[in-house]
Write a structure and sequence with these properties.
The complex is a heterodimer.
Chain A (H helix, E strand, L loop, with lengths): L2 H33 L7 H19 L2 H25 L4 H19 L25 H5 L4 H19 L1 H11 L1 H6 L4 H27 L11 H11 L4 H23 L7 H5 L1 H13 L2 H7 L14
Helix pairs in contact in A: 1-6, 1-9, 1-10, 1-11, 2-3, 2-4, 2-9, 2-10, 3-4, 3-9, 6-7, 6-11, 7-9, 10-11, 10-13
Chain B lengths: L6 E10 L2 E11 L4 E5 L6 H8 L7 E6 L2 E3 L4 H6 L2 E4 L11 H6 L11 H14 L15 H14 L4 E5 L7 H16 L3 E6 L2 H7 L2 E6 L2 E7 L5 H9 L17 E11 L5 E11 L2 E6 L6 H8 L7 E6 L2 E2 L5 H6 L2 E4 L3 H5 L6 H5 L10 E2 L2 E2 L1 H14 L16 H13 L5 E5 L7 H16 L3 E5 L3 H7 L2 E6 L2 E7 L5 H8 L8
Parallel strand pairs in B: 3-8, 3-9, 6-7, 7-8, 13-20, 13-21, 16-19, 19-20
Antiparallel strand pairs in B: 1-2, 1-4, 4-5, 9-10, 11-12, 11-14, 14-15, 17-18, 21-22
Helix pairs in contact in B: 8-17, 14-15
The chains are: A mainly alpha, B alpha/beta.
Chain lengths: 312, 506
């Protein structure tokens, strides 16, 4: 392999990780929501509102940490609406989620109009000393920004919580069989609220990554369907945060590859073809998941999408 | 022999809307005893135990555990008092491991689970009590017998001294049942107490020390197993009931409407529900199916009406083998069905009464022409049936949900019986229906019999079966235990057959 080839591969993979990071944050969030039994289709709206908030705060204050925190809070607040509708009022989760997505896209377009063409502070990379000097791996894995490191760490932590702690056992039981969990003294509604809010905050962070790192500009509709991809990735990851890491970087790779190929003149006319790939993979996963045995094996949350009404 | 009993229930009463489920029951269990709670369906066995386990609050009465009066408000309280219950429907999360299921909801559970330690403890417990199960296995991979062991381990892990098992053998193979009985004896030998809900006489005789017999919410007998016999228990369980008399006009004809030959059918869990069932219903005849619910009644009705796949065997209607045909075919060939679940199966609740009344026939003239429904015909059909069957409703366009239970059943009967069916399959047709409507439903069935229909009447109300049927077949564990003419039926014999203790050649 020539030095040029290596450099190309390194920059491609580094780009893949960047492109995968917003997907990873949003997917892990959606996994928590769905593991507790709440399908949150509002993710696209939550991400775009996160993106707008982060850009706006960064533009006005120049404080990048504040921008990130604000995006997470806005994401959590939007998901709170979803939680209230679908947990407390037992409304239809699909309708509620879609409403939030459409609302988020519309409002962000309206509020963001004056921001078009503006430039805000960008989150800078924070290479990790020593580790960044490892040949090949260093530039790919250890020369990123804090949100990249955070997204991986949070995925690992949330995996541990889900499968190794009492709270995780509660979450999985609530998503599987809420009436039984209730009879064993688990607070179903509270568990679901926490999971949906965590999911919303992570979705907001995913959006923030787009507008202050990945494409540090405000562009209307800049999430470009990434919320939907994250929902598909949740299935691809079979509701497991570790699977989400794999899936997000894989799809990030597809996005990065598509850019590179376009740059050298391949697929310029049909960039959509590559972008369809995530959805093909998702359809394939759904077909696989139609097997009842496999669903049980991977632990598809059996109560997903169903409001829990005590005594029914 | 009696030191203070470990459990004592005094004058316990539990009412449900419209029913007295438990009627001033006294119940006692001693230490180191296997105690059978015997009775037919609806006798109040499970309700009584749900009161003890804190699922239901008693309306009055006292409960003593270890001689101390207690108030049990929830299963958590019961568990604190070292009482554990295995329900008939297991309460397990299918996609979780055995270990996770046992830990779920445990108090004092550390934040970070010590799965390895817990797995080891469960393994030791399962070895100690000879209840083999792999703590790392996921529930969906396990057989029903193994799942039951998980439920029992869940209780033992919480340190229970008193085990309540609700119809535990209904999901077990004979070998697994034997294994369970050995375990129960072992528990008793260790000084733990076991309460065992059943309707099977053999089981009472095989495993219990004493038995309490319930009928219609009341205690009708307390016996030591060593001094009783199956016929005695059967008589206690079924009782001698005063019979209403209905006049049956006309003789059953010799031509069979329905023949069921060697039918094998699986239940919803994929286990055999009918194990080679054969029976015949003639024109002008009511064949009553007696038996405790859950012995294959629902599956029998559904396979005859085309709602359930038949594994093997034949369903023959007027000489044609129709097994494997769908419900539409059955409707077109004169089979009427009065289902057990009136609300979810019998009549879509949000349709109007007029619409519900044509659900069997809306596909055909005069109710539809081409792609369109004939609203006027549907309306006049509804007017006719509402007055003919005395359905009490504000209007034919009222939503079905607004009907009372009795009127809903009349609506279903009006729809099913109006097409002059040849065969009527009626599943618990008067369950939950008030007295007046009950009389009316029974009269209707007799009128259909007189008109030449063959009727398969499945009921758990023995009085109903005895007073309406020409012949009675007893269904037990998916097999016909025998067919007897109604005139010569006696309660003891029926009770023994329903409890699986007697089989007569057909």
């Amino acid at each position: 392999m020539t030095a040029i080839d290596t450099a190309f591969a390194v920059s491609l993979l580094a780009h893949a990780i960047q492109a995968g990071t917003p997907l990873l944050l949003a997917t892990v969030g959606e996994i928590y929501s769905e593991r507790s039994g709440v399908l949150n289709l509002g993710l696209e709206g939550i991400m775009i509102m996160g993106a707008l908030t982060a850009f706006l705060v960064s533009f006005r204050t120049g404080d990048i940490a504040l921008a990130i925190v604000a995006a997470a809070i806005v994401g959590a607040l939007l998901s709170l609406i979803h939680a209230f509708l679908s947990i407390t009022l037992k409304a239809n989760q699909i309708v509620s989620g879609l409403a939030i997505s459409i609302f988020g896209l519309g409002v962000s377009g309206f509020l963001g109009r004056p921001l078009i063409g503006q430039i805000a502070t960008k989150l800078q990379s924070t290479p990790i000393p020593l580790l960044q000097d490892i040949p090949v791996l260093g530039p790919i894995l250890f020369s990123g920004d804090v949100l990249i490191y955070f997204s991986v760490i949070v995925s690992l932590v949330l995996w541990f919580v889900l499968f190794r702690t009492r709270f995780g056992l509660n979450i999985r039981s609530v998503g599987e069989n809420p009436s039984m969990a209730d009879s064993l003294g688990v607070n179903v509604d509270l568990t679901r609220y926490v999971c949906v809010l965590v999911g919303g905050a992570l979705g907001g962070l995913g959006g923030a990554y787009l507008s202050i790192v990945y494409t540090p500009l405000w562009i209307e509709g800049m999430t470009a369907g990434r919320g939907w991809i994250a929902i598909a990735l949740t299935i691809f990851a079979v509701w497991n945060p570790l699977g989400a890491i794999l899936g997000a970087y894989l799809f990030g790779g597809v996005i990065a590859l598509q850019f590179r190929l376009q740059a050298i003149g391949i697929g310029t006319e049909t960039p959509q073809l590559l972008l369809m790939l995530p959805y093909f993979v998702t359809i394939g996963t759904l077909v696989l998941m139609s097997s009842a045995t496999l669903r049980k094996r991977v632990g598809v949350p059996a109560a997903l999408g169903n409001p829990y009404v005590r005594g029914e | 022999m009696q030191p203070s009993p470990i459990i004592k229930m005094e004058q316990v009463v539990k009412r449900f809307p419209g029913a007295l489920a438990v009627d001033h029951v006294d119940f006692e269990v001693g230490r180191g005893e296997v105690h059978a709670l015997l009775g037919e369906n609806g006798a109040g066995k499970t309700t009584l135990m749900n009161v003890l386990y804190g699922i239901h609050r008693p309306d009055s009465g006292k409960i003593f555990v270890n001689g101390r009066e207690v108030s049990i408000r929830s299963p958590k309280d019961a568990i604190t008092l070292r009482i554990g219950m295995v329900h008939q429907n297991f309460r397990l999360v299918e996609s979780h491991t055995v270990c996770e299921n046992i830990l779920l909801g445990l108090k004092n559970l550390p934040t970070i689970l010590k799965l390895k330690t817990a797995e080891k403890e469960i393994e030791e417990l399962s070895k100690q009590y000879d209840l083999p199960v792999d703590p790392r296995a996921r529930i969906w991979q396990l057989s029903m017998g193994e799942r039951q062991r998980v439920e029992i381990l869940k209780i033992l892990y919480r340190g229970a001294d008193i085990l309540i098992l609700d119809e535990p053998t209904s999901v077990l193979t004979p070998l697994e049942s034997k294994h369970l009985f050995d375990f129960l004896r072992k528990m008793a030998a260790e000084g733990k107490s076991v309460i065992f809900i059943t309707h099977k006489l053999d089981e009472v005789m095989a495993v219990s020390d004493r038995a309490t017999v319930l009928r219609a919410g009341r205690v009708v007998g307390k016996v030591a197993t060593s001094t009783t016999s199956k016929p005695d228990l059967a008589t206690l369980m079924v009782g001698r009931k005063v019979l209403f008399t209905y006049e049956r006009r006309g003789e059953a004809s010799a031509s069979p409407v329905l023949e069921v030959r060697d039918l094998q059918v699986l239940n919803d869990k994929g286990l055999p529900a009918l194990k080679g069932t054969s029976l015949t219903v003639h024109a002008h005849e009511i064949l009553g199916i007696a038996g405790v619910a859950g012995n294959g009644q629902k599956e029998l009705a559904e396979s005859i009406t085309g709602l359930r796949d038949v594994s093997s065997g034949q369903v023959i209607i007027e000489g044609n083998n129709v097994s494997g045909r769908n419900a539409k075919y059955m409707i077109e060939h004169g089979v009427a069905y009065v289902p057990e679940d009136r609300i979810n199966v019998g009549a879509p609740q949000s349709l109007s009464i007029a619409e519900n009344l044509v659900l069997r026939t809306y596909r055909y003239e005069p109710f539809s022409k081409g792609l369109l429904l004939e609203k006027r015909e549907i309306g006049s059909n509804a007017e006719k049936l509402i007055s003919e069957f005395n359905i009490v409703t504000s209007s034919r366009d009222a939503i079905t949900r607004t009907l009372s239970g009795g009127n809903l059943q009349k609506l279903i009967l009006a729809r099913e019986l109006s097409g002059r069916p040849k065969l009527i399959v009626a599943l618990y047709p008067t369950r939950g229906v008030d007295v007046g409507a009950t009389e009316y439903v029974r009269e209707l069935l007799l009128k259909q019999r007189e008109g030449g229909a063959g009727i398969l009447l499945i009921s758990e109300d023995l009085e109903e079966i005895l007073s309406l049927s020409d012949r009675i077949a007893v269904l037990y564990e998916g097999q016909i235990m025998g067919v007897i003419p109604a005139e010569s039926a006696n309660m003891e014999e029926l009770g023994l057959m329903m409890g699986g203790a007697l089989k007569k050649a057909a």
